[in-house]
Write a structure and sequence with these properties.
Blueprint lengths: L7 H8 L2 E6 L7 H19 L5 H8 L1 E5 L4 H14 L58 H12 L3 E7 L15
Parallel strand pairs: 1-2, 1-3
């Protein structure tokens, strides 16, 4: 008898359509973390105390829902550390990958814009291939551990039908795959 690589719980979760919610691709968007945590708490509350007609209860009955409040953990850590030391928030959008290609300066922002490091449409659209720019997409698609992690997660949980990348800038709903525009 062969032992299964998954548990009955994992098998059940993989049978359901999945929803993946994440925040803080950009460290400067701290409220995206709060929004994801609030969504988690709302689902937890409704699963225990809610009525059977609530949207959250119905989704929990039918879907597997995954939350990652902070994608860019090193960027958020850097921002928090800087705030503790100076009392000032800084406006950073990238992770903290060390780059040797740019001189240090006032506006210098080391790292990779994780939003632009995914494989689809990499290098196109608003992605900049100059590491000194704010929207630098990295040396190649999925070059960063954060985007590799998301890619691996999505490949493991192939039942995911909807991914919500929560940002805190612009009052926008961005439709996926805008790189073709």
């Amino acid at each position: 008898m062969r032992k299964s690589d998954t548990t009955p719980f994992e098998d059940e979760v993989k049978r359901r359509p999945g929803i993946f919610v994440n925040g803080a691709h950009h460290p400067r968007e701290l409220t995206s973390i709060t929004m994801v945590v609030y969504m988690m708490l709302k689902f937890l509350y409704e699963s225990v105390h809610g009525n059977s007609l609530s949207v959250e209860t119905n989704l929990l009955d039918k879907a597997a829902i995954f939350f990652t409040p902070v994608v860019n953990i090193d960027g958020v850590y850097f921002l928090e550390k800087h705030y503790r030391l100076t009392g000032k928030l800084i406006w950073i959008r990238k992770n903290k990958r060390e780059l040797d290609d740019c001189p240090n300066g006032v506006d210098y922002e080391e790292g990779v814009d994780l939003n632009r490091n995914y494989g689809y449409g990499w290098g196109g659209g608003e992605t900049i291939l100059d590491p000194c720019e704010k929207t630098y997409g990295g040396p190649f698609p999925f070059s960063e551990p954060e985007t590799q992690s998301i890619k691996n997660f999505m490949e493991t949980w192939r039942s995911i039908k909807l991914a919500l990348n929560i940002h805190a800038f612009g009052n926008l709903i961005c439709i996926p795959f805008m790189a073709d525009d």
